[in-house]
Amino acid sequence: MLTLVLLLAGSAATGCGGRATTHHKPGTSHEQASGPVGTLLTTEDGSGHRLREVPADGAPHVQLAARPDSEDGWNLQLTVNKFRFTPDSAGGAALPGAGHAHLELDGRKLARLYGPWFHLPAAQVPEGSHTLTVRLYADDHTAWAVSGKPVEAATQLTATAPGAPGGHSHGGTPQPSPEPQTPGQGQADRTVTIAVRDGKVSPAPARTELKRGERVTLRVTSDRADTLHVHGYDKELALPAGQEATLTLTVDRTGLFEVETHESGLVLTQLLVR
Q: Is the pTM of this model over 0.90?
């Protein structure tokens, strides 16, 4: 009888039947994962994410192709095998062959990807030759790895000066592309007001749920000059120090899209579009 009681107590303590999770709030440091898939290594991927080792047989695989866009920048295609994108469960426990990808330019993170296609604006790529890398991650933000190396793919990218032959940027100096609003024009379905002070986001970053086709307005005040970037929509907004800046956009694609600052690298919110 005593053994049975102890077993039942142990099941309750571990949340028997519940969904294991290593969820962390956007903008905070990554928590150590505890999912049962593969082997969690002490080594990291170079950006602070621990490796999750899985056998080569059945491991995820990714290829990367970059094609110049007819108007601006490049269209990137990720071809994955034994892997699926799972934006709705990002932040949860690691599941076999599931998660998202990170896009890096010369080792600097540009975006988190939740699908096989991504448009890379020319404004984000300095003139010259660069290495573009995509790496696959589990939902708990550990990097999938085989034989101690992250599952990733890379390709070379060459950007020319704006206006030069073969360049993909049109016009003059790249500028942020906010959608300005005037009183009474294009009212939004949702308004998210955010303040950044002393490196902290208020209110605490969370997910903003939207329906496809809705308009959302982001009102952001930062105590230091920065740039806001909406990943997946390629929208940017200059944030003057101490002044409120406003960006309104129509969410016309589904998925989970991060809104973050470029200089301070803070996640302000996540737009979950269904």
A: no
